[in-house]
Amino acid sequence: MNVRSSGSQPVRVEQDVVMARQVSRKLAQDCGMRLIDLTKLVTAVSELARNTMVYGGGGDMDWQILDDNGRTGLRLTFRDEGPGIPDIKLAMTDGWTSGGGLGLGLTGAKRLVDEFELDTAPGAGTRVTITRWT
Amino acid sequence: MDRIPILQMGQFLLVTIQVDMHDQLAMTLQDDLSERISATSARGVLIDISALDMVDSFIGRMISTISGLSRIMDAETVVVGLQPAVAITLVELGLTLPGVSTALNVERGMKLLRERVAAQ
Ligand SMILES: Nc1ncnc2c1ncn2[C@@H]1O[C@H](COP(=O)(O)OP(=O)(O)O)[C@@H](O)[C@H]1O
Ligand SMILES: [Mg+2]
Question: Which regions form coiled coils (chain A) (predicted)?
Fold first, then answer.
C-alpha cells in the first residue's frame, strides 16, 4: 500500500466541520469515487467531525489518499485529546447519545464506509479512522 | 449573522437551502421558521433541499423538528428535492425522517400542500 498524498485540517469550530466536508468531498472526487460512495463518505465525515468538535473539544482531521493493488482509497482520521469514550459498546449502539444528538453518528458512520476503527480510552482522547475504497 | 431567507407565497412559506449549513445556521432556520409561521399564520412550509449534497443526522433532525413544530402550529411541511444519493445515505445512516412529507420537486410539493390545506 502506497500513500499518494496526505494532509491535515483543524476541526475546532462549527465552520471547520463544513470545511472538513468540503475538503473530503474534493479528495473523494480526486480519487474518482462514485457519487453515491462520495455522499456516504462525506456524511460520515460530517458526523465524525462534529463529534470531534462537540465531544472531543476540538481536534484534527488527517487525510491520506492510498493506492493499493490498483484501487484507490481515501482514509480519514479524526483525533482529539478530549475526555475519551468510557463505554465503547454503549457509544456504538444506535440511538445512544450522552448529549442531545440522535445517537447515529458513530454507528451510522461505520455503516457508510468500508473500514472503521475506533481507538479511545477515558482521559486519552479519541481517534476514529475511516476508509472508503473506489 | 447569516440567515437562510424565508419567502412568503400567499399562505405558504418557501425555504430554499442553498448553502452548506453549519449547525448554528440550521438551528437559526428552525427558530426563524417557527416565528414566521406564527407571525404569518402560514398554512404550509415548503423546504427545497435540492442543492444539499449531504444530509447528516443534525440536518435530518432539524427537518424532522421543523415538520413537527409546524404541525402543532397548524401548518403542513413538505420537503422537496432530496437527491437520490442523499436519500440512500440517509437510510443507511439510520434516519428515516418519520412524519416528514416529501415530494419530487417544488411544483409537486406546492400541489401537495394545496391539496392538504384544501382537505382541512
Ligand atoms: N470524539 C469523542 N469524544 C468523546 N466522546 C465521544 C466522541 N465521539 C462520540 N462520543 C460519545 O459517543 C456518543 C455517541 O456519538 P454519536 O453516535 O455521534 O451520537 P450523538 O453525537 O448524536 O450523541 C456521544 O453522545 C458521546 O458520548
Ligand atoms: Mg455525533
Answer: none
Measure in Å the smallest separation between the Cα of A56 and chain B Cα atoms. Answer: 17
Tell me if B85 and A36 make a contact (CB, 8 A cut-off): yes
> Domain with B88 in it: what CATH number?
3.30.750.24
- Residue B61 φ then ψ, to 5°: -70, -35
pLDDT per position in chain A (134 positions), as tens? 999 999 999 999 999 999 999 999 999 999 999 999 999 999 999 999 999 999 999 999 999 999 999 999 999 999 999 999 999 999 999 999 999 899 999 999 999 999 999 999 999 999 999 999 99
Of A14, A25, A111, the CB nearest to B92: A111
Q: How far apart are CA A111 and CA A17, in angstroms?
A: 20
Considering only CA atoms, which of B73, B3, B23, B64 is closest in space to residue A47? B23
Q: Give me the number of domains chain B comprises.
A: 1
Q: Cell numbers of A52, please?
A: 470531534
Question: What is this model's ipTM?
Answer: 0.93
